[in-house]
C-alpha cells in the first residue's frame, strides 16, 4: 500500500460576479501538500502562505479533513506527517481553505486501503459539508469552470472548458478578510428585480466564459452580494468600479478582498496593471484545466 502522497490543489475564484454560491473557476496557482501515514503521532510543516497554521496540530485543516475522510472509510492512521508548500494567499477570496479541504480528503482516499470506494461524488459531498457550500471545492476538484448546486441527495457539479481567450488576473491586497465576516453583511432578502437580473447574468456568464468573451463585462454584473459587502472591503469595491468603468470585467473574488479581472483583449493585462498601481499584488494566471492531482511519493 502507498504510504505517502503529494496532492497539488489549485486556487479557485467563486461567484465570478452574479454566480453567487454556484459558479467557480480553477486558477493556475497551486498548493502542494505531502501526507505520510508512516510512524506515529502528528507532525505538520507549513512553508509559504499561512505558515502560522502549522501550530494548530489536529485542528489544522488538512489534518482535520484527512481524518474526516479516513474515519468515513473506517479506521485510523497510525501516524501522520503533513508538509504544506502554500502559494495560495489565505483569507483573500482565492479558495485557500477549499484547497486544504480537498487536499486532505484526496490524500486520505489515496492512502486508505479501501479508498477506491470513495467516489468523486463522495469527495464533493464531504468537502461541501466541511466548507458549507460547494462553489470553491467543485473547481478545486474538477478544474475549469464549474456550476455547483445542492439537492436533497447532496452537492452536485458539472464542469466546462473555458475559452482559451480568457485570461484571469488576480489583484491581491495585503489585508485579509474572513469569509464569515463578508457573509455576515448579506441581507436575508433581496429585491425580486435584483434576483431576476442576477439569474440572467449568471446564465450569460457561462456563455461568455466558454464561448463569447466579448460578453464578459455585461455577464459579470452583480446585484446580489458585492455592494452589500462594501463596508468590509471598500478599496476592493472601488477598484472593481474603476476597472469596470474602463471596460474590464472585474469582480470580487469569492468573499474578497481579492479582485478578479477577466481579461481577453490584446494588451488588456497591461492596461489593468496601469489602473491598479502599486498597492495591489498583480497575478496574471491561467485557468487551471485540471483539478486536484494526486501522486505517490517514493519512500
Structure write-up:
With 299 residues, this protein is α+β, with helices and mostly antiparallel strands. Helices cover 32% and strands 28% of the residues. It contains 9 helices and 11 strands. The chain has helices at residues 61-73, 96-111, 120-131, 137-142, 179-184, 192-210, 216-219, 234-245, 268-276, and strands at 4-15, 19-36, 41-48, 79-86, 145-151, 154-160, 167-172, 249-252, 259-263, 281-284, 293-296. The strands form 2 sheets. Strands 1, 2, 3, 4, 5, 6 and 11 form a 7-stranded mixed sheet that branches. Strand 8 (249-252) and strand 9 (259-263) form a beta hairpin. The longest helix is centred in the last third of the chain and has 19 residues, at 192-210. The protein is globular. It starts with a strand and ends with a strand. The model has no long low-confidence stretch (mean pLDDT 94).
